[in-house]
Amino acid sequence: MTTNTKENLIKTIRQKYEPLCPFLNERAQRIWAATEVKSIGWGGQTIVNLATGLAYKTIQRGLADLSQAALLETTRVRRPGGGRKKKAVKSPTLLADLESLVDPVTRGDPESPLRWTCKSCYALSAALKETYGHEAAPNTVGAYLANLGYSLQRNRKTREGSSHPDRNGQFEHINDQTQAFLNARCPVLSVDTKKKALIGNFKNSGQTYRPKGHPTEVNVHDFPDPVLGKAAPYGVYDLGKNQGWVSVGISADTAEFAVQAIRSGWDKMGQADYATANKILITADCGGSNGYRVRLWKVALQKLANELNKVIHVCHFPPGTRKWNKIEHRMFLTFPQIGGASHSSAMRLWCSSLGIQKQKKDLKFKPGWMKIFM
C-alpha cells in the first residue's frame, strides 16, 4: 500500500466518521470501525486508528463483537456484568451496617458511635469507614438511604403524655358554655399572652422588600435594650363579633395586667356591643398570668365584675392545650420588632404596626399599650 493510498483512505474514513460520530453509541462506534478494518484488509487497524482516534483495543473489541454477533443482545451496549460493581454488591453487609447507624435503637446497638444529632451523609460516610471499614462516598450513602426508605424529616410534636380522664369532658363543657353564651348574645372572650418581644433594632423572622443588596441592618446580639426593654402583648378576642384588642405591657406580665387588658378591650369595643348583656364568658389557658391557681387573677376579675356589674364566668383549657384557645388561631401572629428614638415613640410605632399586620378575613383588630408598675 503506497503512502498516497494510505492518506486517501484515512481522509475518506475520517470524512465518513465525523458526521456519524454524534449518532453512534459506544458499541456502534467499535462495530463500525471493525467493519472498516475488514473492508481495508491488511493495515486496516492502523488506518482506522489514525482516521478516527479510536484506540487499538476498542477496534479489536469491535472485531470480537463481529465474530460473536449471534451471541450478543442487540439492545445492549456492553455485555451483562460489565462496568464497576456497586458498593452494596462488593460489600454485602453495607446496607445493614448503614441501617444500624441510622436507627441504632431498633436495628442496632443503642450505644452506637453515631448519635442522631449528627446523622448527615458526611457523618454516616465517615462512621461507616471508621466503624465497619466500608468505603462509601456521601452521595452514595444518600442514595442508599433513599432506597432503604429514609428521608430528611423534622421532629413532629405528637406525644402529649398522659391525659386526664376528664379531658374530653372539659372540652365539651367549654364548647357547651360557649354556644350557650353566643346564643344568648352574651360576649365570649378568648384571652392569652403572646411571647414577649424585644423592642429595638433586633432580628425578626420574615422578609420585606428592600433594594437588592441592601438588607435592613440589625443588632448582632439579641440582648434586651436597657431603655426600650421588652413588650408583653396580651390579646382579647371576641368570638361573637370576630374582633380583637391587644394591650402591650412594658413592665411585667401579671394577673393585674391581664385583667387591665380585658378592661381596656371592654371599654374600647365590648361596652357598646354588649350593653344589655348581664354576663361574660372568658376562655383561657390554665397557666401564666391568667392561670386557674393565680389568686390575684381571681381577685382582679372580681373587681372588674363589680365595676361592670356583670357576672364573669371563666373556663380554663386543660394543661398542654393552649392551641385550642381560639385567640391562638384567629388573632395571634408574628409581632413586629421596631426601634425608635425614644421609649414612647418606639412603643407607639410598635403598636401601630400591629394594626396593619395581615389578619384573618373580616377580623377587626385594635392595639394599645400600657405600663403596669408592680
Question: What would your notes on this structure say?
Answer:
- This protein has helices at residues 3-20, 26-40, 44-52, 56-67, 87-90, 94-102, 104-107, 121-132, 138-147, 167-183, 255-273, 295-308, 326-330, 343-355; strands spanning 188-193, 197-198, 230-238, 243-249, 279-284, 311-316, 364-370.
- Strands 1, 2, 3, 4, 5, 6 and 7 form a seven-stranded mixed β-sheet that branches.
- Mean pLDDT is 79; it is low at 105-110, 334-346, 355-361 and 369-374.
- α1 (3-20) crosses α3 (44-52), α6 packs across α8 and α8 (121-132) packs across α9.
- It is of the alpha/beta class and 374 residues long.
- The protein has 14 helices and seven strands.
- It is elongated.
- The longest helix is centred in the C-terminal third of the chain and has 19 residues, at 255-273.
Order of helices and strands: HHHHHHHHHHEEEEHEHEHHE
- Name the average pLDDT: 79
The number of E-state strands comes to 7
User: How many helical stretches?
Assistant: 14
Gyration radius (Cα, Å) is: 38 Å
Let me know the largest β-sheet.
Answer: 7 strands, mixed
Kindly estimate the percentage of residues that lie in beta strands according to DSSP.
Answer: 5-15%
Note the overall shape: elongated
The helix/strand class is alpha/beta
Helix-residue proportion = 40-55%
Q: How many angstroms separate the termini?
A: 111 Å
* Uncertain runs: 105-110, 334-346, 355-361, 369-374
